[in-house]
């Protein structure tokens, strides 16, 4: 499920460098130990030297070089270590034993030193206390090339954090030393805490204090040496009291000498630039009990506690307790318990369990992270195996996610895997093609969800969210919420119990000018959350367009026009969308779409734009009308492009060509497959009332008449599954010959057309009956023009030059001729119709009636 990519290994990246400088025979077993990972990615480590010394070095991931920083004359137990950004100062905490000799006498359990290392010079004792002390230099982002000041955090197990401001000075052109080392400036950052976490990427300090009640606080450090408490969250969870059993340090380096027995609560905070914050905590897991862990979605105002039933196997009673590992992957929080389960929890769509992926057994196993490993999450979505001395970056394995789409998997897993690939993973043409192939091979809708609807909505959501994160709560991301009742298969995970709770409202403090970047975004997220909780149905549902769409269709079929102004607005919307559709490679496209007007789809496109714009203006007015208009038009254009893209890939896969448009031949198995996929896309979009590219209905009907028996085709038409568009019917009338079967099909189609379309397309069929109908309609229209100007004096009872012996016809022709001269454009829409044509048709029909000619 998770693919680990090694980026650091002490045995490969460090040992060879050490051996080049020291004799292996004098070292024994060389085991470098990772002490800390700094903000710049540098890894600080220690090892025992050849002469019984303790050495500290740094690995630079950018240059892949190792650098010796400092050497202690004897073996020391380094419990915490940090290097400043300029690599001129080294802060070290040493765990002292009650006995010992050497340069530093063991007068306390912990000795904290500040050492000048550019070059190695003075050493200052910062603390000598009987409690653990952790050190961490700040890494401020600054534009100044040379900074002669460093800031050091010192966190003590007694429950306080101090910041030391260390002013440096340059001597002899290259020596960097502390200025007034005996009088270092110091400030109290936090106190009375029971848990503290450092986030090196964002330069934030989280801690839990319990002066009145348990509260999670956050201190933000700025480049100008200032800091302030910007966030507070009251914690009313009953289990938080277990945090106070002993002070816990998170991301303050790695102490290889501490007692690894851990019976208390493990807690971590994860944030992302998009304004999400998750507080994750878990109880230790005993082999014979269930695993319990909680994710508090601060940006959503709720928490979820998961209880997982573990397999009860035979295990020794003294098996040590373990904790699940929390890993932050931006969109997901990964909860991993080796040899048991892997839970991929969605941080943004946590409404239903089916958008999170739970795997157990071999599915949830990570090869390099078996039981017994001490694994911690590092800033930047990295994972550190402390004991093995390896660091990894993590990514989801798309090949495994594709395997989860197989038919033998639960539908909740299939939906979670599909959603993960479509929304979380970066666009990948190979993965996209595999998903489309999977859809084409499993084209029928599943019981719990429609995979085509999910593909369309999730893809559009990802595209739109990348353009504007504010659309998170307003655009649909799944088809599941269109169902009246949620399927049971999507509401629960076997063996996993979920208990949701509401969180207390967090308090964002600090000065307005300092609330920039993440804190500004989190504040907007929290404000939107409170607003959307008070607003009914904030998420746009395109299916609600159906009522307006039905009215438009009825108006078009009856030739009744809606308000001209509103109709113009809808048409303008459509023009904007079609102008944004990627048609610049039209000559390379193989699926013939966007080549006709398709009035119905044009209206639906414009209607969706109108309603979506109205929805966003109502709930997101701060973006401005111009920005909203651009987002809405782009959303509709991407929808049309997405459907077109799917058809292009399917067309190429089935190796179809332009012969598909020839309706005189029967369709092949490949064309039937294409028809089936297109029909399911039509069904899926119709269920959501989403528009399709102009020309889609015509192409589908062409494939239908080629692949379906005539009676089945007509049943599809009668049930509204296939549309008799004007281009399709025109092609049918002109391309098919007048065999008995084709003649029957044409008559069946003509009688199903609206009257205005029937009159128009019937002219294109060269057939005696349609010719007679055309003549009758022509005569009726002509005689209705200027009836008040009837002038019998104009009638000439002379002989007709065409049929001198047929006086009735001669008389009619003369009337029509006179009317034709008086009327203004009498046959404007009647091509190739005149008096001569009417005479010929009338004579022919008379002969048929008298039995002189067979039809």
UniProtKB/TrEMBL annotation:
CDD domains: GSAP. PANTHER family: GAMMA-SECRETASE-ACTIVATING PROTEIN. This is Gamma-secretase activating protein. Coiled coil: none annotated. InterPro entries: GSAP_C_dom (IPR028010), GSAP_fam (IPR026172). One of its GO terms (cellular component) is trans-Golgi network. Residues 640-747 form the Gamma-secretase-activating protein C-terminal domain. It comes from the Eukaryota. One of its GO terms (biological process) is positive regulation of amyloid-beta formation.
């Amino acid at each position: 499920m998770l693919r680990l990519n090694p980026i650091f290994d002490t045995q490969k990246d460090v040992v060879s460098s050490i051996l080049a400088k020291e004799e292996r025979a004098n070292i024994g077993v060389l085991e470098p130990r990772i002490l800390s990972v700094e903000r710049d990615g540098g890894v600080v480590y220690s090892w025992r030297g050849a002469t019984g010394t303790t050495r500290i070095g740094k690995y630079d991931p950018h240059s892949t070089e190792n650098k010796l920083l400092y050497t202690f004359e004897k073996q020391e137990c380094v419990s915490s270590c940090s290097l400043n950004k300029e690599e001129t100062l080294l802060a070290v905490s040493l765990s002292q034993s009650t006995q010992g000799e050497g340069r530093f006498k063991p007068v306390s359990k912990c000795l904290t030193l500040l050492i000048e290392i550019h070059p190695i010079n003075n050493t200052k004792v910062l603390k000598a206390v009987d409690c653990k002390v952790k050190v961490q230099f700040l890494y401020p982002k600054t534009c100044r090339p040379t900074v002669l000041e460093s800031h050091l955090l010192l966190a003590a197990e007694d429950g306080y954090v101090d910041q030391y401001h260390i002013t440096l000075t340059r001597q002899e052109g290259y020596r960097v030393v502390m200025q007034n080392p005996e009088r270092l400036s110091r400030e109290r950052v936090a106190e009375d805490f029971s848990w503290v976490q450092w986030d090196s990427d964002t330069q934030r300090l989280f801690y839990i204090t319990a002066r009145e009640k348990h509260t999670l606080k956050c201190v933000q450090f700025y480049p100008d040496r200032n800091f302030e408490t910007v966030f507070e969250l009251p914690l009313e969870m009953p289990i938080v009291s277990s945090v106070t059993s002993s002070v816990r340090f998170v991301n303050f380096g790695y102490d290889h000498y501490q007692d690894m027995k851990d019976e208390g609560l493990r807690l971590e905070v994860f944030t992302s630039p998009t304004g999400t914050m998750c507080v994750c905590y878990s109880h230790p897991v005993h082999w014979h009990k269930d695993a319990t862990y909680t994710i508090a979605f601060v940006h959503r105002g709720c928490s979820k506690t998961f209880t997982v039933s573990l397999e009860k196997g035979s295990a020794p009673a003294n098996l040590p307790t373990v904790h699940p590992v929390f890993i932050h992957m931006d969109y997901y929080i990964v909860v991993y318990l080796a040899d048991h389960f892997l839970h991929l929890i969605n941080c943004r769509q946590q409404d239903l369990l089916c958008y999170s992926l739970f795997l157990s057994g071999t599915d949830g196993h990570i090869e390099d992270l078996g039981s017994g490993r001490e694994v911690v999450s590092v800033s930047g979505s990295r994972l550190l195996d402390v004991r093995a001395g390896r660091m990894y970056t993590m990514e989801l394995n798309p090949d495994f996610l594709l395997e989860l789409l197989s038919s033998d998997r639960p539908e909740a897993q299939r939906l979670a895997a599909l959603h993960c690939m479509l929304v979380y993973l970066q666009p990948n043409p190979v993965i996209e093609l595999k998903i489309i192939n999977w859809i084409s091979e499993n084209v029928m809708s599943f019981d719990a969800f429609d995979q085509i609807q999910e593909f369309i909505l999730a893809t559009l959501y990802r595209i739109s969210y990348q353009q504007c994160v504010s659309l998170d709560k307003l655009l649909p991301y799944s088809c599941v919420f269109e169902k009246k009742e949620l399927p049971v298969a999507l509401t629960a995970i076997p063996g996993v119990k979920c208990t949701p709770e509401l969180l207390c409202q967090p308090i964002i403090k600090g000065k307005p000018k300092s609330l920039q970047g993440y804190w500004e975004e989190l504040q907007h997220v929290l404000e939107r959350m409170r607003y959307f909780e008070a607003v009914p149905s904030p998420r746009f549902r395109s299916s609600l367009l159906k009522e307006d769409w039905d009215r438009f269709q009825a108006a078009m079929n009856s030739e009744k026009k809606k308000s001209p102004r509103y109709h113009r607005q809808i048409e303008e919307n459509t023009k904007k969308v079609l102008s944004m559709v990627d048609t610049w490679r039209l000559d390379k496209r193989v699926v013939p779409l966007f080549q006709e007007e398709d009035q119905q789809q044009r209206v639906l496109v414009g209607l969706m734009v109108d309603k979506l714009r109205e929805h966003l203006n109502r709930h997101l007015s701060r973006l401005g009308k111009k920005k909203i208009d651009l987002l809405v038009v782009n959303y509709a254009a991407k929808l049309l492009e997405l459907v077109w893209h799917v058809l292009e890939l399917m067309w190429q896969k089935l190796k179809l060509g332009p012969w598909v448009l020839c309706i005189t031949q029967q369709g092949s198995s490949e064309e039937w497959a294409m028809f089936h996929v297109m029909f399911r896309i039509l069904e899926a979009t119709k269920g959501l009332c989403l528009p399709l590219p102009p020309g889609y209905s015509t192409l589908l009907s062409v494939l239908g008449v080629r692949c379906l028996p005539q009676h089945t085709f007509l049943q599809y038409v009668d049930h509204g599954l296939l549309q008799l568009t004007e281009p399709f019917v025109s092609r049918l009338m002109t391309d098919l010959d007048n065999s008995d079967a084709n003649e029957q099909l044409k008559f069946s189609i003509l009688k199903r057309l609206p009257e205005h379309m029937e009159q128009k397309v019937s002219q294109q069929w060269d057939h005696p009956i349609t010719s007679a109908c055309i003549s009758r309609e022509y005569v009726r229209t002509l005689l209705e023009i200027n009836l008040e100007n009837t002038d019998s004096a104009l009638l000439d009872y002379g002989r007709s030059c065409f049929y001198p012996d047929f006086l009735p016809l001669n008389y009619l022709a003369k009337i029509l001729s006179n009317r034709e001269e008086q009327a203004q454009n009498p046959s404007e829409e009647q091509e190739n119709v005149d008096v001569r044509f009417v005479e010929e048709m009338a004579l022919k029909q008379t002969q048929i009636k008298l039995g002189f000619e067979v039809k």
